[in-house]
Design goal:
By secondary structure, the chain is mostly helical. The chain contains 3 helices and no strands.
């Protein structure tokens, strides 16, 4: 489980860095600038992955309930009667 979490942290950190760089068009001044941004992205990714793995069963339950409600509402709106 820890290996999956570490892989996810790296993937999420890369995604956050790309998103941050695309949105803000940041210019990095030296190694300290890029290292602090990458460190911040790694920290945020670690927090997000930890929250996800802590509450994964809640996310699954909410997803199932949402799917059931969505299919029920969709089936009721499709009936003309």
């Amino acid at each position: 489980m820890e290996t999956i979490q570490l892989i996810l942290i790296v993937i999420v950190a890369i995604g956050l860095f790309m998103l941050y760089h695309t949105i803000f068009r940041v210019y990095y001044f030296g190694f300290a600038g890029i290292a602090s941004v990458i460190g911040g992205c790694l920290l945020l990714a670690a927090v997000l992955v930890a929250i996800f793995f802590t509450y994964i069963w809640w996310f699954i339950a909410i997803g199932i309930i949402g799917f059931v409600v969505f299919t029920y509402v969709k089936s009721k709106s499709a009936d003309p009667a």
